[in-house]
Design a protein that fits this description.
There is one protein chain. Helix 2 (about 10-25) crosses helix 4 and helix 4 (about 120-135) crosses helix 14 (about 435-455). The chain has helices at about 1-10, 10-25, 35-50, 120-135, 160-165, 215, 225-235, 255-265, 270-275, 290-295, 335-350, 375-385, 405-410, 435-455; strands spanning about 55-60, 65-70, 80-85, 105-110, 110-115, 145-150, 175-180, 190-195, 195-205, 210-215, 300-305, 315, 320-330, 355-365, 365-370, 390-395, 415, 430-435. It has a six-stranded mixed β-sheet with strand order 1-2-6-3-7-17, sandwiched between helices. A four-stranded antiparallel β-sheet has the order 11-13-9-14. The longest helix has 20 residues, at about 435-455. It has about 450 residues and is an alpha+beta fold.
Amino acid sequence: MDVVISHLKNNLDNYLEELKEYLRIPSISTLATHVDEMIKCAGFAAQKLKDAGMTRVEIFPTAGHPIVYGEWLGKPDKPTVLIYGHYDVQPVDPLDLWTDKPFEPVIHDGKIWARGANDNKGQHFVHIKSVEAYFKTLGELPVNVKFILEGEEEIGSSNLVAFLKEKQELLKCDAILISDTSMYAKGVPTITYGLRGLLYMEVEVIGPDKDLHSGSFGGAVANPINELAKIISKFHDKNGKVTVPNFYKNVLKLTKEEKENFKRLKLSDKQYAKEINVKELQGEKGFTTLERLWTRPTLDCNGIIGGFTGEGAKTVLPSKATAKISMRLVPNQDPVKIAKEFTKFVYSIAPRSVKVDVRTLHYGYGVVIPLGSKAINAAAKAVSKAFGKKTFFTREGGSIPIVVDFVKQLKAPTVLMGLGLDSDNIHSPNEHFLIENFEKGLYSSAYFLDEFSKS
Ligand code: BES
Ligand code: MN
């Protein structure tokens, strides 16, 4: 084991150079213009799996972006760990807010800076390299390993869901290992056991068939932006509760024990507000910040499109306006039911003077993973060893859509071994990943494979 760790330590700089190469590929899954980059990125990931010692590596085409698979099954009497990651990244706009260019990775201030540095290339790269280190030093792994790297996590993973149904045998495993979440705080080893789900909708309000002069027509016809704003303003009541009918109907209540656990994490609202540069926090009445972030569903407008947004002034009544609305969901809310309720609700509050279209873009379920499995215990030990502190168990406000399908279909315990920090700017300008977390992540991965083989 020690030889593996020292190999990882000695090669840290090489790994960072390789990671930079990975980060130079602009694998933005949501942009149709980037299809070739996605294919290139899948090829790069596959090559890294081969170099790491995987004996069977395949790129599976899908209706969307390719899925990269790799395996080494040289220990028939030992359990199998399936390691998941995603090679796709979020768009980079607004570009002018980046200090360094998003796809020209650089290292400074103890961090590696680029789109995907944390989410998720940097985080899953540690597992590829820890596996490689085992082969380079001991010539074998302590357990069987399968990798599955997808290119559609940031757009809902729908093709991976279908793949999973089809390839149950191929993906059969005893534990699933994912590093795509955050640590509770810098230096605090963390295992996450819950994720929120997500429902992404669009509401389009359509008025006149073209933009109109706001002097000639203002006062005579409904303005789609005004009407859209009125609709959005009705999504919350004065206590911060979402007003969509039956929204909270199946929400799993917090247990007393969990409430106590959250309290023990001692989150300071003031400190938290300061970190994100807001005057104060806000949200659903009657719940603490951690409860709201990790266990309560929310509804947010992500963007509004419509009317004149150029420089200067132009007097028009816009012909239409669109809002992108997402809801973070929790167990046991059903996104399909909520989508129906939301659609019905929007139609019920829309004025007759405009046409309204409600569309579902994608959805995923929330999940809570039972603590106490061998895999989670081995992971908690591993991160604690790597970071030199006691492990915290947290839930998370973000989503990883495939996790619920892993849990349901592969019926194996899932370990969320996050190495990121909430301050890493994922999905924002200036995304970065702490080198220290990259390094300790390498050790965590190696320790986990070893611990799990003994359990
Ligand atoms: N790595 C994130 C999930 C995450 C977010 C973990 C925040 C910890 C903190 C993941 O890549 C992600 O961004 N997921 C999307 C999924 C969605 C587009 C279906 C999300 O949560 O918005
Ligand atoms: Mn992401």
